[in-house]
Structure formats: C-alpha cells, structure tokens
Amino acid sequence: MTSHPRLLILSDYGDIQASRPEAECLIRLAQAGFDIHIVTYPSPYVSRLKEAGIEVSTLLTKKKFDRKFIGWLRNLITEESRDILYLFTSPAITNGIRAALTLPIKVVLYRGYTGNINWYDPTAYLKFLHPRVDKIVCIAESIVEYLEKQPFFPKGKAVTINKGHDPSWYEGHKPIDLGAFGIPEGAIVAACMANARRFKGIRYLLESTQHLQDLPNFHLLLIGRDMNTPSLTRLRTQSAMAERIHLSGYRTDPLSVLMSCQMFVLPSIKGEAITKSLIEAMSMGLPPVITNIPGNRNLVLHQQNGIVVPTKDPLALAEGIRLLHQDAGLRSRLGQRAKQHIATHFHIDRSVKELTEFFRELVS
Length: 364
Known about the structure:
The protein is of the alpha/beta class. Helices cover 37% and strands 15% of the residues. It has helices spanning 16-31, 45-51, 67-80, 90-100, 141-148, 202-208, 230-238, 254-259, 276-283, 314-326, 328-345, 348-363, and strands at 7-10, 36-39, 55-57, 84-87, 106-111, 135-138, 158-160, 188-193, 218-223, 245-249, 263-266, 288-291, 307-309.
C-alpha cells in the first residue's frame, strides 16, 4: 500500500458552484499524493479534476439499483485494489454498498442533512443504517448527534468533517446592478439564497415582511429556484411591502448578486447542516440573520458575527433584520467578523488535513 489510501469516489459535480468545496478538496488531496478515481456524471468540472491528475469515469448511474453498474463498479474496485469507497449521492450509496459486498474495501458515506434517517424505516437499511457501511462523514455535529440517537447505531461510526472553503474564491467578484430586479439605488437589501423546499422556511421570511413595511428603503431579494410556488406567491403578493420583494430566480452568478446586498437571511426550520449559501454570504462579509436550528450551531454566534433568532417566528426574524437595517456600523462589524470566522474555522486546508487523517486511520 502507498503512503496514502487509494480512494474511489462516487459523486455529482454538475453544479460547479455547489460542488466546488467538495471537488477542490479532492483536488488538494490529489496534489498531496492521494491516488483518486472519481466516478461521476459528465460536467464542466471533469476537465479540472483530470488536470489535477485525478482519474475520472463519467459512468455514474442515476438508477436506485443498477445491476450492470454494480457489476462494473465491483470489477473496478477489484482491478484497481482500491482501499476506500466514498459515496456521496443517493444512487452512489445504494449501488456502491451492493458493489462492495464481500470485498476488502472500506465503505464511507457522506451526509449533509440533519434528519430523515429513522431506525424503523426499512429503506434506511439500504443506505446509512446498512451494516456494510464502515463510516459516515457528516458536515455538522448535529448530524452525528442525530445518528447516534438511533437505536443500535454505534458511537464513533459517524464523524464530523466540514466542507472547507477558500477565502480566495470570494475575491474579485463585481457587484451587479440590482435595478434589473426593480431594486432602486441606495436600497438596503436583504438576500435569501435557497431552493425553496419546505424546510427552508421561506414562508416565515415572507410573513416577517408584514412587520417591516415601515422601512421605506428596505428590499428583500429571493435568489433560487421555486420561490414562485402558489403558496409563496400568495404570501408575497399579500405582504404589506409586496412591491419591495423581488425574485431573481436561479442565478449562475450568485456571488455577484450577494455582493450587491447588505445582509443575508436564512429562515430554515430544520434539516440544515452548515448551509453552503450561508458560508458564501459570510465569506463575502454579509452579516447574517439566521434561525437557531442545530445545524447552524457554531456557524453564527449571536451578536458576535450575526443575529440568531428562533425558528418559525416571523416577528423575531423581522426584529433581527430591523436591527441590521438601522445600524450600518453594526452591519459592517458583524460582516467582517463573519468573514473572519469562516476563514478561521471553515478553511479548506483544515478539511484536507482532517480528511487525510481520517482516511489513514480508517485503513490502518
């Protein structure tokens, strides 16, 4: 065996912005001497991975169980004598575990969501509760705590390793003219960037605007998919400041949009674990207003690098937004501290170091 374990990774790098922390971490591992083979889908990131010396196969299945793919993957593990199989996506996990049955390879799963794994759910034993799984890498301690509450789940099987970021990724972005969304120059803009699934809590953010209509230069910008569902549209049009709530839709330049805003709001009610959009906003110096769900623990410290409020509380959200709206000095101080907090505690170099130690220990 070489000084580093030989890794076989199954993941999806189709969304360049979303997959950047994971992909760049693997690139740095390869630069440090790891032999890595990635099985993924065709995407623009493939060329960058290959340039870093990573072998890439664009043959990842999208089926839950794909007998042909399982056979191919099993042969690949054997032929290349891989030490660790690291599985990220749902199809990767269900097929990868089956491919690894009876083979001398360590199976590692990635988990980025707190919740939705229950001992009484038979499907959980096809993935995260499958006895063939050796370790689960979680991006927040709240996920580890949740898993260890499941009966018979062994302590130590789940570990916390954050997806690190590089401050340089957030430099050189130019702000855009928000007038394209109907936002006037000089407005104080709160951004919320998410794909509007129920656990994101967008409805509570829209309800909070009923308490903010007296702030004439305050505008809310919703960035991401599904912000215009019938239920959210109804709440938006019924808001007392409906004309100052704007939708950008999905953007390929989200960092430039964030640079044009003055604060970031994340009204999630559950499930989140180290939300990427929040880290991006903090890395760009935007002071955040977030809810106190377990996954955000230690990411935003109340009144130190942002504002933390209770979940499902529109009035509390409004009060947090109002506090930042009315005090430019506070926005600046919390924003700078937020940026420093991410650079210090969520740097990609730390992730690379922790993953290196984790992989070595796993096969020792």
